[in-house]
Amino acid sequence: MNPALKSFYALAVFSLLAFAGSGAARKLERVTLFGKEYVRLADWAGATGFSLKWTRKDEQVRLESGPARLVFEADSRKAEVNGINVWLSIPVARKNGDAYLAPLDLDTAIYPVLYPSKNSKGAKIKTICLDPGHGGRDPGNQEGARQEKKFTLALAEELGQQLRKEGFKVVFTRSTDKSVDLNLRPLMANELKADLFISLHFNAAEGTGARGVETYCLTPAHASSTNARGEGTENGALIGNRNNDKNMTLAYLVQRSLVKNLDAEDRGVRRARFAVLKTPEMPAILIEGGFMTDTAESKKIYDTAYRRKIARSILLGIQAYKQTVER
User: Fold this and answer.
1) What CATH number does the domain located at 3-114 have?
2) Does the predicted model carry a pTM greater than 0.70?
């Protein structure tokens, strides 16, 4: 048998068996630790066919099943799912030699990657809304004479061209250097009946040490955003939370493509309640394509050829998502 086809069948069998196991996993006993609800990872592994072992005693635990690999750090929200970093909403807990994971993270971070849901009634991904960050009175990050708004628009134009060549319809929240209210951007996508909403940005930090790519999706209801340091648990569900599963699936596949194709540092799939992620009626993500404050990375961002590579990477992530949810 062709190796690629053999690999596909192996993955398909794993997905079917694991999905069946995931149903049983949702019925696992739940315990309260440190004021949060958890399930024991060893119990979840047994229900889904994963092997589990501590790779660093009481610090790091690894779970494997076929092609799937999960790595969790005790007392940390940073996890690794099939080689890509994903930030959890609640830190992994440790008690009496066992690791515990929050059901919230199983449902909104792990399951959407391992067992992605499919579109209903044969719905297709046809129209992509691109949102070039900032614009007009809002320059975004500024490094010398360079303003983020210029490069997000340039990236959107390049990505739009590549998407159209692949048969997608593309709409923009802005196509010139003009101000567009943050709350209006997802509403424009809703009115245009877009199937995906992609907001494009470039990052900044104090100093020059931070580099790499990040992809954000909306924080689940009553959970803390990645950079919020525990705040935000009082926030209820938003319109964008209707697509929690698909938001994560899209964010993960785009982040994976960016990391792989740009050979960029993986800063992970993250959660935030950014204004543009709150009200889209379709799956939505926000991409931070690199740091303008890092000397080496900023040179790439300002380079047309490198932005073309970023666009290509995002396109490949969108295509992977389309194949995943339509299959």
Assistant:
1) 3.30.457.10
2) yes
